Amino acid sequence: MSGVEHAPARATPRPDLMQRLAAERLRREQAQLLRRVRTCMPQQGAWVLIEGQLQRDFSSNDYLGLARDPALVAALTRAAHASGVGAGAAHLLGGHRDEHAQLEAALAEWTGRERALLFSTGYMANLGVLAGLLEAGDLCVQDKLNHASLIDGARLSGATLRRYRHADVESAARQLASLPQAAALLATDGVFSMDGDVAPLAQLASLCADTGALMLVDDAHGLGVFGADGAGSLAEAGLGQTQVPLLMGTLGKALGCFGAFVAGPAMLIEALVQGARSFIYTTAMPPALASATLTALGIARNDHERRARLHARIAQFRDGARTLNFPVLESHSAIQPILLGNAQAALTASSRLAQRGFHVPAVRPPTVPAGQARLRVTLSAAHCEADVAALLDALAAVAR
Ligand SMILES: *Cc1c(COP(=O)(O)O)cnc(C)c1O
Fold it and tell me: What distance lies between CA 302 and its chain's CA centroid?
């Protein structure tokens, strides 16, 4: 006996996690791809205070300017006084309140679908709908530029994931044909979150009808923005529940609140209640928030003047950008990217705009494909004509 205790020898040398993370961080830093959380304090109008600097905000997804609307604040406060803050439990275990039920009914009615189900976030809704409906052996076909949560949901489901070229219906058809015996679901963003363009929804819907695939549209950026009553890209394209059974919408963007929903035929929504783990195993959203969201829905649906203001700002920005010869993409949504190519160019442009008092984030890989780094300008009904004119002036100055 030596008197020294030795740790038992490891059968295999284990890689050191801390070392790997440090190397990964260094790699990101050197490639100008390090992400950083900054504290942003929204101010009256479309202004934001970032690290002590007051800037005009062109980064928000609050497209209708509802997040700070007094009617929403009043609804939230009133409901919180009546029913408190937390729901206290999951929907299936006592957390489902009258506020949730009312909001679900209103969302179904607005989007022209039989039934709607609330989720805590859009990310969780996409995980829930894909992993809840699909299983190993099934086929999930998705646009290359779909939101990360749709990709992750397909992976979680165990289904075979095949991605098609962006907005390319023939490429989608080839992917569907590649596994003709499998039950299939095709998922697409309605409005693409980094490019701002709208998916070829009608053609994809006929493809799905022809090939027996179920269609899911994630309309996070279309809801409130498109459609006569703001019901989104599907309403704009005249596609109802028969053509596109599953619609996912978020409540944290144009509605200015937080959370998400999936709407569709009662039979599919019931399947989510039974099988969507991100619905079942999580606390219901605060009921007061559901109440504020119901107020937001009323405004988003009926305040046509507000939506018209957003579209006027979009048109103003596009006209100005074209005049200045900026590489803007073909987008009529509130998302107006300016393609700059490499990450450094996008970062430099973003920080020069910040120096002039404009918050326009740079979006870099892996959020967008390599070589497609960009400025992502988002417009809102909260912007006035002078805000957009000032941004165009600043962009022109930065380009020189
Ligand atoms: C924002 C977004 C989501 C996620 O929604 P959250 O409620 O923010 O989690 C999902 N899909 C798309 C296309 C989005 O832009």
Answer: 23
Which bin fits 131, alpha (ψ -120 to 50), beta or left (φ > 0)? alpha
Mutate-to-test residue for ligand 1 from 149, 251, 257, 333, highest number of ligand atoms within 8 A of CB: 149
Residue 297 gets which letter from DSSP? Answer: H
- Global pTM? 0.94
**Which of the residues 193, 233, 291, 380 is marked catalytic?**
193
Strand pairing class (246-250; 260-264) = antiparallel
Catalytic, out of 91, 100, 147, 221: 221
Question: What are the tens digits of pLDDT across the range 106-163?
Answer: 999 999 999 999 999 999 999 999 999 999 999 999 999 999 999 999 999 999 999 9
Q: Within 6 Å (CB) of ligand 1, which residues are found?
A: 121-123, 126, 147, 149, 189, 193, 218, 220-221, 250, 252, 260
pLDDT digits (tens, 9 = 90+) for 339-370: 999 989 999 999 999 999 999 999 999 889 99
Rg over alpha carbons for the chain, rounded to the nearest Å, is 23
Respond yes or no: is residue 96 known to be catalytic: no
The 3-state DSSP class for residue 145 equals: coil
pLDDT category at 400 given cuts 50, 70, 90 is confident
Q: Of residues 91, 96, 147, 253, which has the active-site annotation?
A: 253
Domains, in order of start, for the chain: 40-64+304-399 (3.90.1150.10), 70-302 (3.40.640.10)
Is 144 labeled as catalytic in the residue annotation?
Answer: no
What is each CA distance from 225 to 81, 113, 193, 292, 311, in whole angstroms? 32, 18, 13, 19, 8
pLDDT tens-digit profile of 229-239? 999 999 999 99
